[in-house]
Amino acid sequence: MSDWIDIAALAKILAIGLVGGAGLAAVFAFGLVGLTAHQEARTAGGGSPVALAGAGFAFLVVLAGVVLGVYVMLSA
Length: 76
Hints:
The protein has helices spanning 7-43, 49-75. The protein is mainly α.
């Protein structure tokens, strides 16, 4: 273990970065998939309220992540 590098803090920052970066991007992609499924079902004459609700929930999670990130940056 190095006196200059805190490995535990570095691992924590890496984990938060992966969840915040790749995780939110993946949730956003699931939201787009839900919107596409709803649109395709609507074009076929029906509609998919479950896909639309899932997409809305995914976008709310992304929005909450962005708001949390901005809050953390501004409070520091």
